[in-house]
Amino acid sequence: MTDKNPTSKELIKYQEKYSEEAFWTKIKKIATKAGAKLIYYALVLYYTLMNPATPMKYKAVIAGALGYLILPLDLFPDFLPFAGLADDWAALIAAVTYALGAITPESKEKAREKMRAWFPDADTTDLGDLA
Questions:
Q1: Planar angle of CA 124, 119, 113, nearest 5 degrees
Q2: What is the domain range of residue 32?
Q3: What dihedral do alpha carbons 20, 22, 27, 28 form, nearest 10°?
């Protein structure tokens, strides 16, 4: 990847890195340091990917972005303060932007429900609506 935001074509090459088990493992591992919005965006993309009605062209980019998130070593390793998740964040934003038309209110609500279950004391009002 380059130092600019990734494109949907760049993200597709990471789709083979995606697996449901690896996604949940990574989310649990980075949840406390990543911040609520990053986790929320990842969850929205996950639920959009799992939706059978989501067109394949969106699923490929979403799986690529989630695959990139899962990678243990990427442009900036996750253990680096601040910069460590910047490239993951860029990949998620690129995928959300590309797949915005496929993201349903149901996917967003499922993501919010999961956030409330994992972080019952967290303020989830400032997650944005991805619209």
A1: 65
A2: 8-118
A3: 110
- The pLDDT of residue 1 is 41
* Cα separation values, 106 from 34, 63, 75, 90, 97, Å: 23, 19, 32, 24, 18
3-state SS assignment for residue 61:
helix
Rounded distance between C-alpha atoms, residue 4 and residue 71, angstroms: 19
User: What span, in angstroms and rounded, lies between the C-alpha atoms of 47 and 92?
Assistant: 13
- Is residue 69 situated within a structural domain? yes
Q: pLDDT tens across 13-67, in order? A: 778 778 888 888 878 777 766 777 888 999 999 999 999 999 999 999 999 999 9
Using alpha carbons, list the distances in angstroms from residue 34 to 4, 59, 69, 83.
20, 23, 11, 11
In a domain, 109, yes or no: yes
Q: How many domains does the chain have?
A: 1
CA 36 – CA 126 distance, rounded (Å) = 9
